[in-house]
Amino acid sequence: MKRVLVINANPKNQSFCKSLADNYALEAALTHEVKQLHVSDMKFDISLDQGYDSVATLEPDLLHFQELVLWSEHIVIITPVWWGTVPAKFKGLIDRVFLPNFAFKYVEGKVFPEKLLLGRNSELYITLDTPPFWYKYFKGNVIYKQLKTSILDFSGIKNRSTTYLGPVIGSSFETRQKWLSKVVKQAGKIP
Fold it and tell me: For this UniProt entry, which residues form the secretion signal (predicted)?
């Protein structure tokens, strides 16, 4: 049994990402301990105005998110692509929470920081309004590079898989049901 954190990164109250997150969590909860987080429910300032020059006080929702990340062994991120990458509120969540001495630690005399979130793995589910092959091969796959390399790998979280679903816009009910079934099936196979 693993401790699984399912993050719906879509800031909208109702979305296909929310349906994916809810269905993933229900299936995973049959064999694992699961907690969910919906970015839409969170209240916090998304801007890291002073960078790392000063320590900003974390709002209660951000402190709770830190607790969930530390609790988790497996993190599932379900996010739409907005303007080529993650929505601003989710990026703000990462900016505000994945801080030095939480996600990584600068070490004097070393080029690369120490990764502080080792021992966790992740899955990414990315929804798009363009065909996935177009986004990945012609648009540069920015969201994957940002999440996997610049955030997860940087802090020690190993990404196990990435699933692209799209185009969502104009998709039929049957197509969305097929995608939901795929996500539910994968939720039943958490290593």
Answer: none
* Per-residue DSSP letter, 55: P
Choose the CATH number for 3-187 among 3.30.1330.50, 3.40.50.360, 3.40.50.10490, 3.90.25.10. 3.40.50.360
Coil, strand, or helix at residue 147? helix
Contact, 114 vs 138, CB < 8 A? no
Across 43-67, average pLDDT:
91
* DSSP state for residue 169 in the 8-state scheme: T
Kind and range of the H or E element at 6? Answer: strand 3-8
Instruction: Label residue 54 by pLDDT band (50, 70, 90).
Output: confident
pTM: 0.96
Comparing CA positions, the residue from 155, 146, 90, 123 lying closest to residue 2 is: 123
| Amino acid at the residue 173 | F
Digit-coded pLDDT (tens) for 3-18: 999 999 999 999 999 9
Contact 3, 73 (CB under 8 A): yes
CB atoms within 10 A of CB 64: 15
In 111-133, which positions are buried (b, 16+ CB within 10 angstroms) versus exposed (e)? eeeebbbeebbbbbbbbbebebe
pLDDT tens track for 118-161: 999 999 999 999 999 999 999 999 999 999 999 999 999 999 99
The pair phi, psi for residue 183, each rounded to 5°, is -65, -40
